[in-house]
From TrEMBL:
It comes from Paraglomus occultum. Pfam families: MFS_1 (PF07690), RNA_pol_Rpb5_C (PF01191), RNA_pol_Rpb5_N (PF03871). The chain crosses the membrane at residues 31-49, 61-83, 95-115, 127-146, 166-183, 195-214, 247-271, 283-303, 315-332, 339-358, 370-391, 411-428. It is found in: Membrane; Nucleus. GO terms for cellular component: membrane; nucleus. This is DNA-directed RNA polymerases I, II, and III subunit RPABC1.
Length: 660
């Protein structure tokens, strides 16, 4: 007997029903698009940390408080919280190219609005215009930050998606690292702040031009998942809110990204009370991010090769929480090296998680759009950044304290919360739904290729039938009895259950020959009408892959939970391998999953009902409740019960599975 239990999401059921093999192909243009997306994110994020590395100079030039300067960075996070759902919707509705064109235009426009604030003579007017420019730049940031996950899925196969997502996503914080080094070196005094604004606006404008030459999507899909139409943003968003595993990832992502953003924005304020100037603070920020680039550069290709999403995210996230917990103990005077080491550790591990979290957000929610899951994850990360920045800013000591404006309390808050919330990721326990769908398609394609080998298997004469297909003379024992194999619990007509020769001839014999198509029948369980059984009798004496696919399609269309194929002669080796291949990688799913099972029997196996043999004792299949009661009554463990081999004729008769 060969059996295969399929448990796939509804979208994956279309795999069996799909048309002949599509051609999946990768195109060189994907590297152009990925490079462009990298620089769009990098240059746009220069806007985010233009003022934070030179807080004191910016406050004096704009005639505002340090908190108001902090708001110029925080506004990026606030706008993202408000606009990120719109960014995901835009990418779904407009497509990649139009969305990035719009974002590039806003990025350049916002940069020049910021600079125009420096041309205003009234000091108070400068801040108002600059914050308007920051808001415009922040809107484009929503698009750029959400796009990498969509781009990776649209242009890359499963062998490069995580790396592509990594390259596009880490460019954003890399822009922050560049700003940490570039801005303090340019803005050495108040009069040079406008120069930094001209520089950032010019870079963003130049970067926007190549978007005109970007293609929206490749001529053909790179993978099966890319070929599937994504769910609409609204329905996908509702599913995310009820997906426990996604919410676990969302909490971890919000915690790590939120505190990382808050730490970068407030880094100068955190370190300056301990004697570290803006240049040293900028170097610490740059080292943190550059270490992260190394971590992301390692994790992206590693995950593409191993697909060990769950292992990495569960093992690394709590360590990041420990890193944040250590910060308040190392931030002190004359501890520059220790601070740099801990910050490097946080950066290295945080960045290694970034592409993995974005990809695993797609894996546990497929077929929800990658735009939707990425937008909601970044919504949490940036929203957490807003909240954590505000709370940490309010926890700083006043100006008249022993150490004025010290933020040690802020670091304790950050460390404790990050440590606790980072461990929630241990509750994540989802399968990689997108990968499983693609694996199923790959196996289906292998089955179709195997069809070319179907004609090489030896044929043999059917039990109870002549080689020309005519019915032999003889008694009832020469008729196959598949209904006896499945009558338990199914509603089967008496004539079907115990057919005589006349009934068989009337129903199944046409023009003196047996019509095996007429022998096919379908029944349902007496206690559960939705649980149906389909028994088929292929005309081919040698059953191959093509017939298996036809039956799978019929079962999916009619929602039949169990199927039995009774073949005359042999199964081809290709068909046997195909069934074994289908059985691999299939695992249990949630309550909305459709499950079906396919068994195959030779007619010769069904001529005798093995359970009615005088030497075979009576067997009864226990329910789960009955088995628990039995174990409890005799104080046994399940491993102490006598075993029956899954290949035993009785086990095959009842269709038993492991554990029953």
């Amino acid at each position: 007997m060969a059996s295969s239990t399929h448990t796939t999401e509804d979208v994956q059921l279309s795999i069996v029903q799909s048309s002949p093999n599509p051609v999946y192909e990768l195109y060189p243009h994907r590297w152009y698009g990925l490079t462009l997306l990298f620089f769009l994110n990098l240059t746009n994020n220069l806007y985010w940390l233009t003022f934070a590395p030179v807080t004191e100079i910016s406050a004096n030039y704009l005639a505002v408080s340090d908190t108001a300067v902090t708001l110029l960075g925080t506004i990026f996070l606030i706008v993202f919280v408000i606009m990120s759902p719109c960014a995901g919707f835009m990418l779904d509705r407009w497509g990649l190219r139009k969305s990035l064109l719009f974002g590039a235009f806003l990025s350049a426009l916002g940069g020049w609005i910021r600079y125009s604030g420096c041309l205003v003579n009234a000091v108070k007017g400068r801040y108002a215009i600059i914050i308007i420019g920051q808001i415009v730049c922040a809107v484009s940031n929503c698009i750029f930050l959400t796009a990498p996950t969509n781009f990776a899925m649209t242009w890359f196969s499963d062998g490069g998606r995580t790396t592509a997502n990594m390259v596009g996503s880490v460019a954003n914080p890399l822009g922050g690292a560049v700003a940490q080094i570039l801005i303090p070196s340019v803005v050495t005094e108040e009069s040079r702040l406008p120069l930094a604004l001209i520089l950032t606006a010019s870079i963003a404008t130049v970067t926007a031009i190549p978007v005109l030459f970007l293609r929206d999507k490749p001529p053909s899909y790179p993978s099966f998942s890319a070929s599937q139409p994504p769910e609409k943003f609204g329905s996908g968003f509702k599913k995310l809110l009820t997906n426990w595993n996604f919410l676990v990832i969302w909490i971890a992502f919000t915690t790590i990204v939120g505190f990382f953003s808050a730490f970068l924005i407030l880094m100068n304020d955190i370190l300056s009370p301990y004697g570290y100037d803006e240049t040293k603070s900028g170097i610490i920020g740059a080292v943190t991010i550059l270490s992260g680039l190394v971590g992301a550069g390692i994790s992206g290709p590693l995950i593409d090769k191993t697909k060990a999403y769950k292992t990495l995210i569960k093992s690394v996230t709590p360590v990041v929480g420990v890193g944040f917990f250590l910060l308040p103990f190392v931030v002190r005077e004359n501890a520059y090296a220790e601070i740099a080491i801990v910050c490097s550790l946080i950066g290295f591990l945080s960045f290694s998680l970034l592409p993995v979290a974005l990809e695993i957000g797609v894996e546990c929610t497929f077929p929800v759009s990658a735009n939707t899951s990425a937008a909601i994850l970044w919504l949490g990360g940036q929203g957490g950044g807003v909240i954590f920045t505000i709370v940490m800013d309010q926890l700083r000591l006043p100006d008249d304290a022993n150490r004025p404006r010290d933020m040690k309390r802020s670091l304790y808050f950050q460390g404790i919360v990050a440590l606790v919330l980072s461990f929630t990721v241990l509750f994540y326990n989802s399968k990689n739904l997108r990968l499983e769908a693609e694996t199923a398609v790959t196996k289906r394609n292998q089955m179709e290729k195997a069809e070319t080998n179907d004609g090489n298997c030896q044929e043999r004469e059917t039990a109870g039938l002549r080689s020309d297909g005519k019915l032999k003379q003889g008694d009832r024992s020469q008729l196959p009895l598949p209904v006896n194999m499945c009558s338990d619990g199914y509603v089967v007509a008496e004539q079907e259950l115990n057919p005589d020769m006349d009934y068989f001839r009337t129903k199944c014999v046409r023009n003196g020959k047996v019509s095996r198509d007429e022998m096919m029948f379908q029944v349902q369980k007496s206690d559960n009408p939705t649980e149906q059984l389909l028994v088929t009798f292929p005309n081919e004496k040698t059953v191959g892959v093509k017939y298996l696919k036809q039956i799978c399609t019929k079962m999916v269309d009619q929602r039949v939970s169990r199927g039995i194929i009774v073949y005359q002669g042999t199964l081809t080796s290709a068909a046997n391998k195909a069934i074994q291949s289908l059985n691999q990688g299939i695992s249990d799913r949630g309550p909305d999953t459709f499950t079906y099972e396919l068994d195959t029997f030779s007619e010769s196996e069904l001529l005798v009902n093995i359970t009615e043999h005088q030497l075979v004792p009576h067997h009864t299949l226990l329910t789960d409740e009955e088995k628990k009661a039995l174990l409890k009554r005799y104080r046994l463990k399940e491993t102490q019960l006598p075993r029956i081999q899954i290949t035993d004729p009785v086990a095959r008769y009842y269709g038993l599975k492991r554990g029953q």
